[in-house]
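Lab notebook, page 48
Experiment: co-folding of the full assembly
Goal: obtain a model of how the components sit together before planning crosslinking
Operator: M.T.
Materials (sequences as entered):
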Amino acid sequence: MEKYIEILKASGADAWEIIDTKTTGWEFYFIGRKLDQNRAKNVEHVTLKVYKLSDDGQSLGIASAEVAPTESPEALKKIAADLVYQASLVKNKPYRLNTPKKAEPIKAELRPLAEEAKAFIEAMNSVHETETEDLNSYEIFTNQVERRLINSEGVDITEHYPSSMVEVVVNARKDGHEIELYRLYHLGACNPKTLKEDVEETLQIGKDRLLTKPTPALGKAPMVLSTDAALEVYNYFLDNLNAAYVVRRMSSFEPGKPLAEDIKGDRINLEALRVLPDSPSNFAYDSEGAPIRDTVLIKDSVPQEYVGSRMFAQYLGLEDAFSVSNWKAGGGSKPAAELRKGRFLEVVEFSDFQVDSMTGDIFGEIRLGYFHDGEGNVTPVSGGSVSGNMADNLAEMYMSTELRQYSNAMIPAVTRLENITIAGVE
Amino acid sequence: MKAPFSEYLNSLVPGLRRLIELLEQDFDYVSVLSTDSKGLAVRISQHSKSVGNKTMTTERGTVVRVYKDGLYCEYAMDRFDPAAPEAAAEEISKALTAQLEVLKATGTAVYETGRLEDEPLELFVEKEAEQLPEEAKLQELVERLTAISDKGMTLSGHMLDCMANAQSTHICKLFLTRNRYLRQSYVYSEGSVAAVVGRDGQNKFGYKSVSGLCGPELFDTLSNKVEKAVEDALTMLDADRIVPGEYEIICSPEVSGLIAHEAFGHGVEMDMFVKGRALGADYIEKRVGSDLVTMHEGALCAENVTSYAFDDEGTLAGDTIEIQNGILKTGICDALSALRLGVKPTGNGKRENFEHKVYTRMTNTIFDSGSDSLEDMIKSIKFGYLLEGMESGMEDPKHWGIQCILQMGREIKDGKLTGKVVAPVIMTGYVPDLLGNISMASPDRLVFGSGGCGKGHKEWVKVSDGGPYLKTIGRLG
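Observation: model returned without errors.
Model output:
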């Protein structure tokens, strides 16, 4: 690290930043229950970023380079000199980098990779399969990461954390017909109980997918979400609080201004959290050195604070803003069972559900849904698509009182949007 | 000029050869892939401007693959010292031995695979490029992109931002075994213009791109794209919602490319055959499309962002005809999957970078052209849509479902474009129906390489795809 600091100090840059991320990782790939391949890695990524003010101080240039740990000192000096030149070519509105600020360190339990890997393998071994629902294949990635950030203003932060990922494909079959479902879990350390429960729930969903009929064309109808697809809905709110969206005039969210008039449904509550158990994103500081605070972002459908990167936060005059790592969307007024009433479609499996944060457009092809006809009949369905826009749903959406965690987010276990177009296949 | 091969990689060769010798004392097969790919990325918008050297494919590192007792293992590192191969061999053996102990403790069985062939082969390829990203005229490029962004802002009072991006990467890869010594160097570039417009709280986004197997000289063509990007964004601002249903459709080349990629790109990646995850395995030599459907896949079948000479397992690039006149002929395959299936690899073994595992991946996936004019296609439609612009797609190889999110549909009534536009459009359906209903194809075709492709929701690699205008029937929502 010292070599990078010395070179940047001597480069002529007006400010600089170094991010050094060291990762040791173990990976295991399975076909069925058998090991396809095992892999290990030991790598380091170093990014140098320089800032150069114009002669009149009215603009700020930014240039960055990822440098290989094997670069020679001579090559590094040339890279730094090139960065200063490159920065002089682009003109941004000036802003200041973060200065050192105290934050309570987060104590991450880092077990040796062998123990962590063993826990993941055993958790997957414990998943109960049946004759008709089983694991097609799965991949386990477990990493230990050391991230150090240093900048020219005196910030010097090192954080150690676990970062893991499990990809699972399950099959279910009946009468010669077989289907598959896909899951990708981003995790911190291994929580065997949660992983086993999530995978076994997926096996059950797979069983239901075998019983589907074509989705009817319901036209405008309520849609219920009860899986990680609902993250897209809440990410829409989070993105629209981002200073970059606001500066670019892509967001109309304003602190103190309600998201909608005449709200009939539940009100949105959104918080940023420093720590969420089992999250892979438990950090005391964001990637630019700003302390992460437990912060209310939206209260009762009224935005409270913007978040985001240093550059755009400064453009809005925000000194204490930060980039969100963990977050929580609050529950509504009714339990999940109350939200599953009347005529609606609950979709539990999409090809790729998306809510475009900039346009608010909602899309997704239905792989498995449950059509509730309002008279007590429930039919598993597949095919067709859902579409709509968040703007048409802000005044009436409902969230369950129960919450559920997905990776770095805690959200209502059930979310109901009232104004969705459902294109069937019949 | 030739894009010169990395001197850094040349300097590693003696040390890597020694590393292979050392590891062969314990393993039955050893291969090494070393990479040194440099890049350039310039991003200009009205609110943020930056220059960097990182693109999706820049990297420098080494991955070692070893084989013993039916099992392949890999170790990725970025500090290989050619003067100390013994230390690297020890580091690799120590890590893999520790992993095997965990596998033994958990009672893990191995999916046994045969040993890869190691036929002798030497190859040195340096492809042509007018400029290199390392030597680009940066000041001119920044000024050009700034002018594009500024011009975009003048084209409408509804403009919120106009982004102009340029990226270029000089790929250098070295593949070594006891008998194979392969080196390649090439440059690819991609650029885009994105216009964001807003009115009455509603935002829309227009996007145009360029890509090619060439250097930063490609960006000379980017200025021509800004008007169309702004026009598309404004068109979408005035668009209606589509009435969901099944329609006669004409797919523009960009949409045809997305269908090629999602339908019979992912659908015939043969590592999915090994896992029983693709319906395509049961349909070889069976009809999956109309007579007009012929589809190619391979690094050699087009010159674009992923037109390499050999893949990340040292297999030479190919040009595979996946579908010929509607009949599914074969899939594409990485080397290990080929061993397991008893077929020849097709040169489609790719990694996100040296840190990642090889999977069967697409390169260029392209529909063949036909002989019908776009005008005749439009004339033939009673009520339908001309579909333009792609946003994203998702495959479902197990069930041959497809989801394509498209920018817009231009309404056609009684053989004429009405001027009415619907947006956005989600096209879903069953792949054999979509391809089986192709009834017209235009003689021209285009290839697009500005996007990335994931396997599931990870493992991002560069791909290109394309085709001609195609007329078919699709379910839109």
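Interpretation: Chain A has eight helices and 21 strands.
Next step: discuss with group before ordering constructs.
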